[in-house]
Amino acid sequence: MDKGEMNDESDLDWLSSLEEGPRPIYLRIVGALAAARSSGRLQPGDRLPPQRELARFLGVDLTTVTRAFTEARRRNLIDATAGRGTFVTPGEPEEPILDLSMNIPPPPFGLSLPALIRTGIDGLLKRSSAEALLSYHPGPGSPAERAAGSSWLAAGGDRLPVERIAVGSGAQALLAAVLLSQTREGDTILTDVLTYPGLIALAEATGRKLAGVGRDDDGMRPDDLEEATRRHGARVLYLNPTLHNPTAVTMPEGRRRDLARMAGKLDLLVVEDDPYSPLLTAPPPAFLSLAPERTFHVATLAKCISPFLRTAFLAAPDAQAVEQIAAAIRGTTMMAPPLMTGLACEWVRSGLAGEIAAAVRAEAQARQTIARKILPAGFAPAESSLHLWYPLEGRPRSSEFGDVARRRGLAISPAGEFSVAPGVADGLRVALGAASSRERLEEALRGLVSILAGASWHSPPAV
């Protein structure tokens, strides 16, 4: 390329950060643009050269530059004004082009969820009375909704009486109800040192404390649980034992039984957050079946079917505990939305919910296969998990890695989002479901590999 051919060489200084690597050149152009804006090399209001000039400078065809500008506009990096040109925007970027951070189920291959939703709502409105859908029914849910919840939870054991079931507007609402009804402000809740971010936010919002318990390759260690319980005087244990978020570890049955016995010895209540079991063909027995007398089991449909269904079911040790949960629901979210909950329960009763979950499981398995082919050693495969964990030791820190990835149009989740205490463990969670297609996932993973392979990330820490 002969920069002397350009009208103003300084207009293209930002392209000095154009990286080499396997990513398509249009994405490398967008990455260089994002990095230049982040560093201040490009300022809001700066005008970019015409696309034809840029294509000639780079030695690429015009469609490549046009595609890069289209993606940059999607990310709110640039804006175009007819007759004036293309300018750097003043606002912050929107979500990166390639999202490996949002842990949602992938679109199930061979099924159109929007079409199923439209058909399902239309049928529900025809079959249900307007009074039922337009009225309040606060608390643990209607008898029919609780019966559907019992049926959904039966996959993890025997079907429970509806008196032990509550329905809520998502797992977070039910977890909040458990914490508010079973703990007091200032109480300590035991959990893994890396845990679900929603629990961290919930504890902070309600004035509860979290204490991390040591773990090994099988999950939380019973001996560490005993020591932490006595040290903190805790009464509640939070577990996410199946396809753990963020490490993707599934706790084996033996460890579950050991922890259930230890919880009994210490008289701990167990809060079992179980959004991912439907993604396994043969999940280990739930704590709900191993320690039913002390377990509050929460299962959401959002992670195995679709975030559209903000519907979750809770099984409690007894009817009295459900009444306590119901009071907390009334004081927070009031009730589960009737229309969405009605659709979710109808899908459970008809078997469609199970069919969709099976299709999501198959797509998750296909995406795991893609990840195994592309990612380097260190990303442990996790059957049909929606995410993977990559431990980091030394440099780079995951927070620094996340910043670099974001400037290159890639979103990942660093360990700080999951850490109960700073400095306990470092790593990256890579979510596989948010990419709109397998091709987009491949593109995102290759971008991640490119960043991991960067020489600057292997330098020793400064002394």
UniProtKB/TrEMBL annotation:
The keyword DNA-binding applies. Pfam families: Aminotran_1_2, GntR. Residues 23-91 form the HTH gntR-type domain. It comes from the Bacteria. SMART domains: HTH_GNTR. The keyword DNA-binding applies. This is HTH gntR-type domain-containing protein. Keywords: DNA-binding, Pyridoxal phosphate, Transcription, Transcription regulation. GO terms for molecular function: DNA binding; DNA-binding transcription factor activity; pyridoxal phosphate binding. CDD domains: AAT_like (cd00609), WHTH_GntR (cd07377). In the C-terminal section; belongs to the class-I pyridoxal-phosphate-dependent aminotransferase family.
